[in-house]
Amino acid sequence: MPSSPAPRYAGLDGLRAVAVLLVVVYHLFPSAFLHSGFVGVDAFFVISGFLITSLLLRERAATGRIALRAFWVRRARRLLPALALVVTVSASAAWLVGGDVLVGLGRQVLGAATFSYNWLSIAAGTSYFSAGMAGGQPELLRNLWSLAVEEQFYVLWPLLLPLVLLVRGRVARVAVALALATGSAVWAVAAQAGGASITRAYFGTDTHAVGLLLGVAVAVARSPSPSPSPSHSPEGALVRPEGALAPAATRRIAATLATVGVVALTALVVISAWPGGASNYPMVPLAASLATAVLIAAAVHPASPLGAALDVAPLRWIGERSYGIYLWHWPVVVLLGQAAVGRFTDATVPIPVGIAAALVTTVAAALSYRLLEQPVRRLGFRGALRALGARLGGAPARRFGALTTLAAGVLVVGGTTAAVAAAPAVSSSEAVVAAGARALAEASAAPSAATTPRAASEPSALGAAPSPSPTPSPASDATPRTGRHGKPLPPPPAEVSGDRITAVGDSVMLASAEGLLGRFPGIQVDAAVSRSMWAGGEIIDGLSAQGALRDYLVVGLGTNGPVDGADLQEIYDTLGPHRSLVLVTAYAPRDWIPGVNAELAAFAASHPRVVLADWSQAIAPHLDYLAGDEIHPGPTGGQLYAATVADAVDAAENQRAEVAYQVALVRWATARALASAASPTP
Q: How far is it, in rounded angstroms, from Cα 299 to Cα 307?
């Protein structure tokens, strides 16, 4: 039997629109000003906590009980149709696109089907804020983590609410809700302090329940509320409690509520624009949740003009479809990015791709709302199936439409099955990094190879470690070859051997290990995933203390974050006056890369014995040599990486040899002149 329309609270549709716009702009246009637009999800949590608790309290006040089965059926009618459509269509489209977008799809579909996406993501070690330098490809259905948190709340909260209601007094009940919210925030901080990852703290239902519980507190603070008016719109009756105040008092309250609401809305937008919000969990989401709670309280008050202002037609239209917009926008931008440019990195969505994703999302959400979500909400699952059956037995045009719907359903279910079956175990970037690690492991396992100690806190792959003997003097420092009359000969073109090179790098160097080993047999390589320049400094200090540094130190550590000149200077000082430093520029679709390369170039230009291996310039015309993330080189890219390093090392060796030759030539010419001057004149 179809459910009756739920009461509609003034301003909530408009607030939903604000929340979904924050998230969509954050994801589709990451270079825009909403640096922390992900807090739109927290605004949704507060709205959900408020609305669900209000409905449960209203039902209990009217009937004396909470009909759990009916509540969960209503939630299923609201959530499942659009979710099933998005998952199956997105997975089928991913199957057609292919590549890295399929990685982990089976786990994602399972998480969507069981509303456990957040916990499965925690178990898999994925991240909401970054695709990860090793994996590179964001998950197709990553945005479903928040839906899982909400659905878990919908299951648990109706069971716990009667216990809260045992507490006597509205103030005491609000205090309980606020205490639970505080406990969730404190637990998030404690979990991270205890070593838990940001993924665990952000995805965990226990550590991210603050917004939901603040919404609960607002709902409890407003209870008991009168029953809604018997008149209903298609979206439910607008809740306006009865009772009237004197006109002057009403105007004062309205002005106060409007002011408070505008301040709260402004605060929410400012928080969404706050730089670096992802690294300040849970403080930034907590601030956004508090602002949203105040905004809801100001909007739904019967004397407030804010609710009507938020419910202007465009915002209400978006708000009514906000669920579908949220579901569609992320898989759409991932698929469009993959199809348009062969990869998708959430840190750098091309503007045309973002615009196209916004348009596709809007159309898809509007069609889903009209043709699927509303019929199921109005008729129920059985009623919607009966209506489809009636169309199959109707006029030819209606029968054609029904058959088309059934055929499309079969296709997307089949496409989802095929996509899950075809999903690769790892992404292309993970595959090339793993291949590099295997190459180094094989080199280290060779009978003539030793293992170079490293910091125990950081895993790395090592190849062809040095012999325990001291580092030999560079060949360019030896006496130059001489010709007739002892005149020094120009040095031959240099080709530095691997046993004179130490290389320390990140996952890009690790992926290039096979190329380096092939170009420089005997090279010493220490490379690891997600390593930055500051970590490299510690490793180089350790190698120096062991006497393991060779004539040339190659450093490739610019991919994972900005580079500080002080870190470079520390490495340079560690090398001493008899070794050369080769700095490898970085290439990645990350906003800090231009600054990294500028810093490396400036350091090389201002310091002797420092040369630049310009990997960024070398790989730019050959992006097809890279894996799907456009960061990690494949086999051909690894050879180009090694050739780029070889050119830099050989150039430095040639320069040293040329200096030695010029010095020897001056000495020879001086000796010849002195000898000629000392000889007797005939």
A: 4
Q: Is the pLDDT of residue 158 over 60?
A: yes
Give the 3-state secondary structure of residue 243. coil
Domain ranges of the chain: 12-227+311-422, 428-669
**Tokens 């791709």, residue?**
353
pLDDT for position 292: 97
Report which of residues 538 and 23 the model is more confident about. 23
Distance of CA 37 to the CA centre of its chain: 13
> For residue range 623-638, what is the model confidence (pLDDT) as tens digits?
889 988 889 999 999 9
Q: How far, in Å, CA of 514 to CA of 519, rounded?
A: 9
Burial class of 339 by CB neighbour count within 10 A (0 to 12, 13 to 18, 19+): middle
Compute the residue count for the chain. Answer: 682
Which of 292, 286, 278 has the alpha carbon at shortest distance from 36? 278
Alpha-carbon span 197 to 80, nearest angstrom? 31
Q: What is the CA radius of gyration of the chain?
A: 33
Phi, psi of 244 (to 5 degrees): -135, 150
Confirm if 61 and 224 have CB atoms less than 8 A apart.
Answer: yes
Residue 271 contacts residue 308 (beta carbons within 8 Å): no
Structure token pair of residue 260: 């408070």
Q: Give the global pTM.
A: 0.80
Domain 428-669, CATH? 3.40.50.1110
Q: What is the Cα–Cα distance from 67 to 22, expressed in whole angstroms?
A: 35
Structure tokens that stand for 301 in this block: 């008050």
Confidence category of residue 571, pLDDT binned at 50, 70, 90: very high
Answer yes or no: is pLDDT of 457 > 60.
no
Q: Which two tokens stand for residue 305?
A: 């003009």
Residue indicated by tokens 């050369």: 580
